[in-house]
Amino acid sequence: xxxxxxxxxxxxxxxxxxxxxxxxxxxxxxxxxxxxxxxxxxxxxxxxxxxxxxxxxxxxxxxxxxxxxxxxxxxxxxxxxxxxxxxxxxxxxxxxxxxxxxxxxxxxxxxxxxxxxxxxxxxxxxxxxxxxxxxxxxxxxxxxxxxxxxxxxxxxxxxxxxxxxxxxxxxxxxxxxxxxxxxxxxxxxxxxxxxxxxxxxxxxxxxxxxxxxxxxxxxxxxxxxxxxxxxxxxxxxxxxxxxxxxxxxxxxxxxxxxxxxxxxxxxxxxxxxxxxxxxxxxxxxxxxxxxxxxxxxxxxxxxxxxxxxxxxxxxxxxxxxxxxxxxxxxxxxxxxxxxxxxxxxxxxxxxxxxxxxxxxxxxxxxxxxxxxxxxxxxxxxxxxxxxxxxxxxxxxxxxxxxxxxxxxxxxxxxxxxxxxxxxxxxxxxxxxxxxxxxxxxxxxxxxxxxxxxxxxxxxxxxxxxxxxxxxxxxxxxxxxxxxxxxxxxxxxxxxxxxxxxxxxxxxxxxxxxxxxxxxxxxxxxxxxxxxxxxxxxxxxxxxxxxxxxxxxxxxxxxxxxxxxxxxxxxxxxxxxxxxxxxxxxxxxxxxxxxxxxxxxxxxxxxxxxxxxxxxxxxxxxxxxxxxxxxxxxxxxxxxxxxxxxxxxxxxxxxxxxxxxxxxxxxxxxxxxxxxxxxxxxxxxxxxxxxxxxxxxxxxxxxxxxxxxxxxxxxxxxx
Length: 718
Known about the structure:
Elements: H1 3-8, H2 19-22, H3 26-39, H4 48-78, H5 91-122, E1 125-127, H6 135-149, E2 156-157, E3 172-180, E4 186-193, E5 200-202, E6 208-212, H7 213-219, E7 228-240, H8 253-264, E8 269-275, H9 280-290, E9 296-300, H10 310-313, H11 331-335, H12 340-346, E10 349-353, H13 359-370, E11 374-381, H14 389-399, E12 403-408, H15 416-428, E13 432-434, E14 441-442, E15 445-453, E16 456-464, E17 476-483, H16 486-501, E18 512-514, H17 518-534, E19 540-545, H18 551-563, E20 566-571, E21 588-593, E22 598-599, E23 602-606, E24 618-622, H19 628-632, E25 634-640, H20 644-660, E26 665-668, E27 674-676, H21 686-692, H22 699-705
Parallel strand pairs: 1-6, 8-9, 11-12, 12-13, 14-25, 17-22, 19-20, 20-21
Antiparallel strand pairs: 2-4, 3-4, 3-7, 5-6, 7-8, 10-17, 11-15, 15-16, 16-17, 18-25, 19-23, 21-26, 23-24, 24-25, 26-27
Helix pairs in contact: 3-4, 3-5, 4-5, 13-14, 17-18
């Protein structure tokens, strides 16, 4: 098997007759997750534009799924690779089931859009695609089209002298069937919509009226084709294979990625989306030029590209959006007059984003840049965003004469170009830029500052569950852990040496690092719970993850359930484990939380022989999900939380609040489907709870003052 195809596969499974009863297909589980996201667009408890945002997100999610996951399966089928999934399905069987589910999701998206479109009209936001605009608005649209749009468009005839043009990934185009008025000759013209144009155009004026770019072009197309009669038209959109494939023997990783990014734009067409009333002559040309037997064809009744609805979400209507929320700055840092190092030196700190500001992470690095006693800064960068204050702080540190090392991960999907740009900028400033491993992604979230104090040096560390990305930090729930624990500092140094110099640590004092020991640490903790259960002691596992797909971890959890360990899992996205099956997983409960914020933190907690939560509970935060790629093919860290106060905050507030949530929760059924949780006698919303209660970093004092509600998990919840 080629290394490229191997890179598209998550794990290898042997066929098994019992696999369908034990496991849920990874791809179908993801589609079920995206259906839960889509369902939020029907949630009447949300403001109208937030419902539209969820619809847009479901479209964006599905696009990426088609470009990466479905493209991988298509590649396997075309190369004759019959590698079965965890539930025993072959690639072709998975594709058949996926296409059926995708068509259903697209049907639901169109239905939800029709309902939201009517509600938007009632709220004063009209969609010109479906309503007549007044004469004044019509004139403004026409003027806008002629002055702003026509100069950018390039109609191209499709005939032997004009070959079919290349349509870029996520490209939108229109085909027009024309009759020349002078001689009756029929011509087909293509107009590709430049990506710089908005997908939805707001009609100039005070009234909110939107029209899709493709409908705008069709409405005034006669001005582009004088002397022709328009017989028919149709809009289409293309998705291509967008996975980047890197040869193991790549000599220059930067040059290889730049070439791969260019190849991605020209990948195989995976999905062709077109309007249902597409002109037949033009449709035949389109299918002949773009579609293959493996291309998924989506026919829609007028809405091309659901993700583009995000343009309408930006309408300035605060009354139709969630009330604004400003994250709190951590109280512990404020108590030390903004001195991050003094606060961390006194005691470990846990920060809960987005309820507490990500700015504290940036300030940690800014202070390092300005502090004359700081001698070195080391930082991993997986996704940093296009406007990164973290990058600016690292550059400032280098320019101030500090020794700065940045591990920039080029393989961060869809952020490769941005990361290449950041790497160049960092190098120009004097930062030592490392690209890590060819085969493995460096996904760990670690920042390390070495500071001269007295006659020696002290190491301050930040370990996170999320990326150093100031934009996603406002909507992703993640944990930031700051510590000056010498053992963790030494482990962090070993981790960086592993990535920068391939020096595999023989031993770490506290950190578990994948791919060299994290899996084994998880297995060991699960096995200890099994032993406690067998000895008649309390035994429980609580975990919060984005995805659970690894067969080894799932089988270990099944064994724990069969031994009597009570297991509560909060898995936002993919879950290949089947819960509540007699004799297999009757002691496992799985739920998924979908709400205003995207649950992203990864936490494991183990009862350790006493009722959970207790002073003996073992708590870990990690950058890794329970997926084979995270445990075997990525550099990840799992950090033990040993400080009592911090452990209680993570276990008895963050994790427990997720388990108690009823308003945003979906509960997995034994057949793998999900149902909304019932509100119960006392409905509880974990996002609202953290938005309205004191920050974790000041919770110790707040708890003493009785200012924070005490959470408790009812008995028999599993």
